[in-house]
Amino acid sequence: MDELTEKGVVELAALISQKKVSPVEVVRAHIEKIEAVNGYLNAVVIKRYEEALEEAKAAENQVYHDKPRGALCGIPVTVKESISIKGSPNTFGSLYRKNNIATHDALIVQQIKKAGVIIVGITNTPECNFWVECYNKVYGRTSNPYNTARIPGGSSGGEAAIIGAGGVPFGIGSDIAGSIRMPAAFCGVFGLRPTSRLVSVQGHALFEEDKPQESEKMKTALVIGPMTRKAVDLLPVMEAMSKEGSKQKFDAMPPTERPSRNWADVTVYVFPDPKIKFASSVSSDIKHTVLETAEIFKERGAEIKLVEQQKLFYDAFDMWQSTLELSSKETVNQIFTNGGEPALLKQFILSIAGKNKITIPGLLMCLGERIFNLSSKRLKSYAEKAKKLGERIAQTLSDPSIIIMPVYPTVAPRHNMPLLKPLDWSYTAIFNALDFPAISIPCGLNKKGMPLGIQVIANKNMETILIDAAILIEEEKGGWVKPPSAG
Fold it and tell me: 3-state DSSP call for residue 61?
């Protein structure tokens, strides 16, 4: 089992294509791994084992009879529960939507199926995708594969946990404030937030590009993207996920055949400890990881610029909030109640007996919206500030340049601890507000055995330089490390 579940997409696709292993063997090995780890992770909340094995048999027939097939034929994958899969629950962890069954496949699901992937399971999210702790009243709590006392992150926490544990080689997540990058960093895998519109969000719960009432701003804040254990796997996966007709092409040739990037042509801007209002300061091990990673690029000839103006992203949360509030027709309170208005006092009282319909983080977010709403004037002011900052960054990154900074101020926190520091996700949210592609890259483990990670940002539609950076850092740092608990 482990021989197959520790390989990546590129490796497995080659073995299947060469008929050295069958899709059925690959899918069965990953189902066995999921069963071995999911009892203590609670990452996969909907299992599609029977359907997956039937699809694997069909894929096996295609391979062994040399029939036309997708580039990722026979590769197992999991998908976040908030992304529609026909006939499967689509509750996004809300009791107000517990009976929701998807009536169609999201466009991204249709696309990856065309590529030949096999969906073996659907993964957990926080309630309504609005928190860094992967917990809800429908499916319960998901834990980190490196330490079950810690969180896997959110909102794509179930994806990150099962990928990090070896359950699947890649997964499909979504990101509106760091929901791909934070879980990826906490669980030691790669997570890419692509430029908006590169991957369709049609069929994603709450915010969809097929909803005419959603504004253009909202459609740039939310993206769907990949999470993988191997850096090079991002290339074929992104090629499969990108919209048909996209100008972006991801060269999926084997890494040994790909020309390496000349890093001497690249400027690297380093933010080891950006000062962000309402967010915690960066821990020493994360700061050290950022600086140490910059040295990798310096050794390859890149120009390193340690940015002394560490307050560039100071108003990150306000910029992000203004982007969403000025663009969404629904309030947070309406989202959590499927269009209604929650009786917050009653729900807080019911929480004492554990009978609340909305989780404590959800209730606090609803309460915060009511108490701390910015005036229309201030929202517009921050939106304008975000626009100017975006233009400034785009100009700075117009030559081949990247930014390196933390994903989150610490490694994965313990369960419930984010409630004490509720805006530490601002380190990632700023790039949703500005719509720049960003990637979370694993950089080994700290002394307590928890994954360390950094975030790399590039100019719009420059995902390939981010993937090249991930490949380089993986080469130097070792990439994904198998959790001891995953056996």
Answer: helix
